[in-house]
Amino acid sequence: MSSSEQIIVDARPQIPNAMPVVTVSIIIPALNEERVIARCLESVTHLDFPHDQFEVILVDNGSTDATLQLAQSFTDRLNLKILQKKGVRISALRNLGAREAQGSILAFLDADCLTPSTWLNRILELTPADNAGVVGAHYLLPEGSSWVGSTWHRYQEAPMAGEVSHVPAGDLVMRRQDFLRVGGFDETIQTNEDYELCERVRAAGMPVRAFPQIGVIHLGTAQSLGVFYRKQAWHGSHVVKVFLRDVFRSHNRKAVFFAAYTLICAGMVLAGAVWSLFFGGGFSKRWLLPLAGLLALLLPPIALSTRQIISSRRCADFLPLTALYFTYGLARARVLLNIGNLF
Question: Rounded to whole angstroms, how far apart are CA atoms 194 and 160?
């Protein structure tokens, strides 16, 4: 462990000259998570799995709130180890947890997620041997979710099962041997690290599979358009960087093309509006160009929503889903304006 890494609490029983009994290591990265960390760890205490056969490794990124104090209150109920590594990206936190893990199975969990009681039992059923690759699940909705959260989940997350491009790092499971063999999470990128890991896992000849039965409830699900926009802008910050590493085979290409198209159309609307204000002809012709750009901007969200509404036969979802696709496109287009995100 380097000088920048620190063990805060190690509440695991020390058994001299004995083989480790831990089967699964649950790794939780954290930074100022006082709102959710107690609920997350409380859910882990209710796992229907022998508590001496799993450990919890919380890796903190220098929290300045009550995260550590709240976590330490669980040391009498969990086989808990708390590490601290300040000023690094979330991938480095997860990798540190994996290096310190005793279990042969690594279960990555985010601090704003709640586990079902059967989570570990089902994980063991799905990762029986080495070369199992990645297993995981897209998130489940918290109770009382708004139309933003429920609509996006219904069409973008709930259908994900079987072979998939990726699973979110907040509910991602690998055999420790496989994880270390492919090099763990890429510490040079801020976001899209789960997708990038899954790409390398596939390149190593292992599968990436989603199983809804091991889904965890994501308390951080966006519940308003504003939060949805900010989260999509954040999550997209290094999507293009990962895409450029393997342009022709990347599963990110649809998202990148959608963002690029949205940016071009938004530019057309803005340029058309400026042109019309200063150089346009009569009123009927003055706004023709910006209106054409706006229609082009709306076309993909409308087309995507129409296709999915026809399949689901939920006509009432058309406008909400179109609004979400439109917001998604704008958020990802914004990312392209930051050259630092691309290289």
Answer: 15
User: Same domain for 41 and 190?
Assistant: yes
| Structure-token pair, residue 161 | 């099962």
User: Which residues of 41-148 form beta strands (DSSP E)?
Assistant: 54-60, 80-85, 105-109, 113-114, 134-136
Provide the number of structural domains found in the chain.
2
Q: Measured between alpha carbons, how far apart are the two ends of the chain, in Å? A: 30
Which one-letter DSSP state was computed for residue 132? -
Task: Give every CB contact of residue 120 below 8 A, 6+ residues apart in sequence.
Answer: 24, 47, 48, 49, 54, 107
The rounded distance, in Å, linking the Cα atoms of 126 and 132 is: 8
What residues make up the domain containing 274? 253-341
- The answer to whether the beta carbons of residues 196 and 242 sit under 8 Å apart is yes
Pairing mode of beta strands 171-175, 105-109: antiparallel
Contacts of 194 (CB under 8 A, 6+ apart): 166, 167, 168, 169, 172, 185
Return the biggest CA–CA distance within the chain.
88
Residue 242 located in a structural domain: no
- Are 165 and 85 found together in one domain? yes
Let me know: does 37 contact 111? Beta carbons within 8 Å. yes
- On whether both 20 and 136 belong to a single domain, the answer is yes
| CATH code where residue 114 lies | 3.90.550.10
- Is residue 122 located within the same domain as residue 263? no
Q: Residue 102 pLDDT more than 90?
A: yes
Residue 326 pLDDT > 60, yes or no?
A: yes
Those residues whose C-beta lies under 8 Å from the C-beta of residue 281, and which sit 6 or more positions away, are none
CA–CA gap between residue 84 and residue 285 (Å, rounded): 62
Q: What is the mean pLDDT of the chain?
A: 88
pLDDT band at 92 (very low <50, low <70, confident <90, very high): very high
Whole-number pLDDT of residue 286: 63
